[in-house]
Amino acid sequence: MSPVRVLLVDDQALFREALGTLLSAGGEVEVVGEAGDGDEALRRAAELAPDVVLMDLRMPVLDGVGATRRLRVEQPGVRVIALTTFDDDEDVFAALRAGAVGYLLKDVSSARLVEAVQAAARGESVLQPSVAAKVVARFAQLPEPDPAPRPQPLVVPLSERELEVLRLLADGRSNREIAGELFLAEGTVKNHVTNVLSKLGARDRTQAALRARALDLL
């Protein structure tokens, strides 16, 4: 399998250098370029056509939210993961509304980051556990339409094991972390996640968590 092509966007050159070294170590990721601000990121993305962009949010010239919004219009096939120091509500929801498919903090482990990059390249969403909790909480606060239709029950119910996987998935855990928690092989967890998404009719992990909440499964 070809490595995922990644563009690093951060205004701190030392951080970009260190991050590039960590990401490239295992061979699953190829860092194809760097940018120090959002405006440069747009130019570099047009030149390099990366699969995934790791985007800092607070940068000069053009911030990460603005760059993400433009990138999603100019190159809709490129997946953006916000990688930042901050997880306050304003930053989180601004990035997600702009089109980011993931939101991670800079204290994330290199293994988790590589896994997130690979997941984003596959079309999945990736959220820090604290961010996933914010998304689910915000969804729960939204006013329901009047009258509020009750979600249809699942045609095929989730097994007890799938429910365990769903609860950890909703907490923002990666497949590797779920495997460790439940003492399962990572491939087994991946199969369970696929079944959970299929039964819930969800396209990704975030939508699965939201639909599970609507069905009172969490």
Automatic annotation (TrEMBL):
InterPro entries associated with the record: CheY-like_superfamily (IPR011006), NreC/VraR/RcsB-like_REC (IPR058245), Sig_transdc_resp-reg_receiver (IPR001789), Tscrpt_reg_LuxR_C (IPR000792), WalR-like (IPR039420)
Gene3D superfamilies (alphabetical): 3.40.50.2300
Domain annotation HTH luxR-type: ranges: 151-216
Annotated Response regulatory domain residues: 5-121
Keyword Cell division: no
Keyword terms, alphabetized: DNA-binding, Phosphoprotein, Transcription, Transcription regulation
Record-linked Pfam families: GerE, Response_reg
PROSITE patterns per record: HTH_LUXR_1 (PS00622), HTH_LUXR_2 (PS50043), RESPONSE_REGULATORY (PS50110)
Modified residues (4-aspartylphosphate): 56
Protein name: Response regulator transcription factor
